Amino acid sequence: MNGLASGADSGLPNLARPARTRLARSQQSALWRLPTPMVFGDRPVVVTKNSTYSANNIVEFLDAIGFSEGVQPYVTRVLPMWQVLPAPMVPVTSIYGVGVRTPETFVYGEDGFEGTPEVVYGDGDGDMNMVSLVAAEKGWSGVEGQILKVVRLPGVRHTGFFSDDSSLTKVVAQIQEAVVSIELHRKEKIVSLQSSF
Fold first, then answer.
1. Please, which domain of life does this record's source organism belong to (predicted)?
2. What is the pLDDT of residues 150-177, one digit of tens each?
3. DSSP category for residue 116
4. Per-residue pLDDT averaged across 2-17, rounded?
5. Are the C-beta atoms of 134 and 59 separated by less than 8 Å?
6. Where would you tag: which of 5, 14, 65, 188 has the fewest CB atoms within 10 A of its CB?
7. Domain residue ranges in the chain
């Protein structure tokens, strides 16, 4: 949200702020990464001198930062997709980093969105906070027929997920375990079908 509002440097510190903001807003994932009402509810994600924004008033936030062209795609494409996130009814392994200081709320002072916000941090993977990371787990755990395995990787950052050897080894092990499980399930199904004849 900070990138959309004030153009976080995105690794380009010498790029002027207006250009950084345009860059952030042009990214395909910009709107998809906004907090959703289903997961975040009324939790404050951006606070200014005059307003508090939560996932329930993202449209007002987009208007306030001068990104009104983002409203229509958010309302017609993004929001409907995230309003209901049903269990996929296929085996899912969710792997994510934890224990990394991660932004949760951006507090803008007197300069509003032109200023640099104070950041309130919480747990997560450095990019995605725990509210987002556990959303599938909360929504899908206990759904009859949904197989869900959650693997948390302590100290692993979102941006280093596949570059850290230890993390990569754990991810590969989970993939191999899933392949074995799928093959075993397939064989059981074949045996079951054969015995019914």
1. Eukaryota
2. 999 999 998 877 788 888 899 899 999 9
3. P
4. 75
5. no
6. 14
7. 1-85, 86-197
Encoding tokens for residue 147? 């197989």
For the segment 93-104, the average pLDDT, to the nearest whole number, is 95
How many whole angstroms separate alpha carbon 61 and alpha carbon 37? 14
Give me the chain's average pLDDT, please.
88
Measured CA to CA, the distance from residue 122 to residue 100 in angstroms comes to: 8
Token output for 142: 């206990």
Degrees to nearest 5, angle at CA 19 with 34 and 158: 40
SS3 content of the chain, % helix, strand, coil (to 5): 45, 15, 35
Q: What is the rounded distance in angstroms from the CA atom of residue 72 to the CA atom of residue 167? A: 39
What's the pLDDT at 9?
62
